[in-house]
């Protein structure tokens, strides 16, 4: 028999090792479908690593992919800290992207130093509103925010599609449902010539730094963690649980909204309804792999981005479906969840007949 | 006037029941899991995997009922993953469920793409045909509305009453409800909390997968990316709306089906002035509204989301 005992203090070593173990486990498990598909394992994974990190171009692509993931990852990390299960990062991403084209395609004139911050602010606000709604329903009516944010993802995507077919549609787009281009003054520039990685990465890194400070050194950060860990104790300590929940929602939604804005004004330059290949959902995995640490989010975003970019490149080279990337990402999420268990519990072998007492 | 005439067409009622069928399977599945204390957000992925597995099995020659069996087994296996993570390991049911949805969806897509690398449109199967019941199917109005469905619809409705009976009247049902309300009391009676919860999650997941299989084997005749399109999440909302009661779940699913069938027909009337997306949004908006109405007074299974460990308390 075996028995699970809670550790008196969570193991710090294991906490640091867990994400790496989880990643190794995810890659090992993903080998099963790869082998079943008749592929050479080393060739496939080798091509993935090369495609993600093998050249300056590859690394630029990975960082470009990581830019929105850092923001959606932070969004999930902040919300999950307060046990607000925001699964609506995808919808908030699109709200931020929508706000970017509403403000940034010429409706508001101005120089770049006014327009860029203004567009970012608009995107963050749109994302925040997108999560404050479900969070309000949660605090007021006890409506499960997981389901409402998930359903809102579908609703928001349809709103975007409707806008792109109608009032936001670029008359010059030859019938394609896409928005007018972002004006130059509202565009985030590329960081290096000939590479796609853009100043949105700096926005993401700045956000990670700000969130680190907020979570560690401010009253708000303390309240978020207190509410997440034990809402009853937090209430007794005089913290407004509902108020904190709404603040967490505002921050989390704003971060996911910023991801959409940065993708539009930094990378694409216009909005289409397929601009996100699931950045909102991948952000959940990023946050869990990072064990909700903002600094960890930066690292795990680069890893997850690498998986996607690498899998795309491998898929083009040897024809393995790029859904392998989604498979690895999902396995990483489940693995890190299990790894988290081993940090909190120790498994004790009680001998074959033990455990009865 | 046209708005009311819609209700007079047998076609409308037939569509309502057809749309409700996968939701009945899914909501029953979610209800069984939650009654045992486990929220199963893997549902969306299990729908997708069931749709893919059932269809592919038929395409490979398993026969329609063989396809259903394959879908159910795939669903139960995915349910087992969720159950192991959330029951003996007691991990977050929210995160595990989302992870299971991601895993099942990507596994289904990967399998599809690996088996059919170059096809633009998927191969079609011969799906379930509407039953032709003597006398009943030929009735005016009632025949086409109620008695010309595929066998899966009648199985779904029969399952509602079966699950209701098992839950309310049998020791098994009592034990499942108890394990979702007060697991320690079940344990003190010498029953296995883990066994009951894992079994319930596997059975519920099998039903979810059959709901998915209905899409590829009765409603349509092939598998498409994104075809589940939130139906799983809608079932989770319907479960709360139904206060975890099978017959109310049937009612909820039928109401939902009727609403959706109605708006599709309304769209042809007013489609010129109202954008189609508004109609497509309706089911999700309706689910949120149903959830808000139901959630406040909802009588959640008391141990829902709460892990239980042997020997603790």
Structure report:
- The complex is a heterodimer of chains A (357) and B (313).
- Chain A has 357 residues and is mainly alpha-helical.
- Chain A has 13 helices and 2 strands.
- Chain A has a domain at 74-279.
- Chain A has helices at residues 12-36, 41-53, 56-81, 89-104, 112-141, 145-165, 200-217, 219-229, 231-236, 241-268, 279-289, 294-318, 323-344, and strands spanning 2-6, 345-349.
- Chain A has a two-stranded antiparallel sheet.
- Chain B has a single domain, classed as ABC transporter involved in vitamin B12 uptake, BtuC (Orthogonal Bundle), CATH 1.10.3470.
- Chains A and B meet through helix 6, helix 11 and helix 13 of A and helix 5, helix 11 and helix 13 of B.
Helical fraction of chain A:
over 70%
Count of helix runs of chain B: 13
State the distance separating the first and last CA atoms of chain B: 64 Å
Question: For the residues shown, what is the average pLDDT of chain A?
Answer: 92
Please give the number of β-strands of chain B: 0
* Shape estimate of chain B: globular
Largest interface: A-B, 46 and 47 residues
Rg of chain B, Cα atoms, Å: 20 Å
Helix/strand-derived category of chain B reads: mainly alpha
Structural class of chain A: mainly alpha
The CATH topology of chain B is given as ABC transporter involved in vitamin B12 uptake, BtuC
Percentage of helical residues of chain B? 55-70%
Outline the biggest β-sheet of chain B. Answer: none
User: What is the CATH architecture assignment of chain B?
Assistant: Orthogonal Bundle
- Mean pLDDT of chain B, to the nearest integer, reads 92
- By oligomeric state, this entry counts as heterodimer
Morphology call of chain A: globular
Mind summarizing the main beta sheet of chain A? 2 strands, antiparallel
Number of helices of chain A: 13
